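pinned: reference chain
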Amino acid sequence: MAASTKAAALFKRTLALSPARCPGGGGGQRCSSSPLPLPGGRRRGGGRLLLQGSPPGACPASPRFQRPLSSLLCPQDALSDGLQTCYRYLNQTSRSFAAVIRALDEELRHAVCIFYLVLRALDTVEDDMTINLDTKVPMLRDFHSYLYQPDWRYMESKEKDKQVLEDFPTISLEFRNLAKVYQDVIADICHKMGAGMAEFLEKKVDTQHEWDKYCHYVAGLVGIGLSRLFSASELEDVIVGQDTELANSMGLFLQKTNIIRDYLEDQLDGREFWPREVWSRYAKKLSDLAKPENIDVAVQCMNELITNALHHIPDVLTYLSRLKNQSVFNFCAIPQVMAIATLAACYNNKQVFRGVVKIRKGQAVTLMMDATNIQAVKAIMYQYVEEIYRKVPSTDPSSNKTQQIIVSIRTMSLPNGVEASRNHYSPIYLSCAMLLAALSWQYLSAMSKASEEYVQASEN
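pinned: its C-alpha cells
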C-alpha cells in the first residue's frame, strides 16, 4: 500500500484519540471533548492513525473547564471566508476530526486544521490510481512548493476528496496566513512526507531498517509535526518539538501496532507491510503465514515483530514525561496505551491470522479514564508488558529478546521497584462511565453537525 493512506490515517487517529478529560494531574488548564478512536478504524492508507471509533470521555461539569458550544464553533467574526471554507472541507473529509479541532486553542486549532488539509491533499494525490507515475512522482516530491504558489490546483483527480486539490488555492492562502513558525513546520513535514511517498510508491518493505523508514514517513513525521506545533504554540516546552527521535518513536509504535494487527486485512487487500527480512525466515511468501498448516511459525514471526515494536516504549515514556499541558498529554497518551493493550492481545495469538483481534470497549474506556498522568501510563505499560511476559513460550525463537526488553520497560515503569498504582473501577462505576462516554459521543456528533450547519449558514 502506498505511504500516504497510512499517513493520513495515523494523523486522524492521533488527533481523534484524545479523550475529554480535564486536568487531573500533570498540569495544564484546558479540557477538550474528543472521540476516542480505537486501533483500526481508518481508511487503508491515508487514515490509519492507530485509534478509532470508540466512546469519548467526559469533562466534569465544573464551569471552569466548560466551553460554550459557540466557542467551539469558531465564531464568524473570528473566521475569514477562506478559513470557513477550510473548516467545511475538514468536516467533509473527517467529521470526528473536525470536532476535535474545535476544542483546541484558536491559533493552534487553525494550524492543525491546515496541517491536516495539506496532508489530506498530498494523500489524495498519492491514492489516485488514475494519475500515472510520470506525473504523480514529481507532484509528490514538489507538493510542498505548491503551498507558496497562489494559483496551483489540480482538477483531474477522481478521488472522493478531490475538492482539497481543486480548491487548493484557498488552503494554501490560509497556510500563508498562519504565523511563520507554523508555516515552516507544515511545509517541512509536507516536503519530507511527499518524498517518502514517492520512494515507497512501488517499493516493498524488505529490511527492518526499511520498515522503520516506511513507518517514519507515514507516522513518525506526523508525530514530529504535531510535536513541533505543540512547542510552537507554547503549550509545551521547546524540547518537545526539538527531540525528533522521541516524537518519531511515538508514531512508529502506533504504526507498527497497526501493521502487525492488520496482517490478514492487508493480505485480503493485496498489501504487504511486514518486513521481508523477518517473515522470510518463517515462510517462502508472506501470504503463506495465513495457511492453517503454517500457524505455529506465523505466530513466531508475529511475536518477533511485536518484540521489535516494544523497543519504542522507553522513548514513548520519556516523551510523555515531558508534557505539561493536560489536554496535550491526554491527546498523546491514549493512543499509546491503546497500542500496548492491542499488542498484548495479539502476542502469541493465532486469531491474528484468522480474523480480527480487538480490545474490548469496556477495556478501552478504562484505559481512556486512567491515562491522565505519567505514573498512570507507566502502570498501564507495566500491566500489559507483564501480560506479554507471562505468555512468552520457552520455545519461541525471540523469547530471550522479548524478555529482555520487557525487563527494561519494567525498570522505567517502576524506578523504585514499587508498582505504580492504578484506579480499578467496580462494574457499576464502569457501567456509569460507559454511559457517560456514550452520552458524550452523542454530544460530539451533535456538535459536529451543528458546527457544519453554522459554517454553512454564515456563508449564506
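why pinned: The two ends are 41 Å apart (CA to CA). The chain has 21 helices and two strands.
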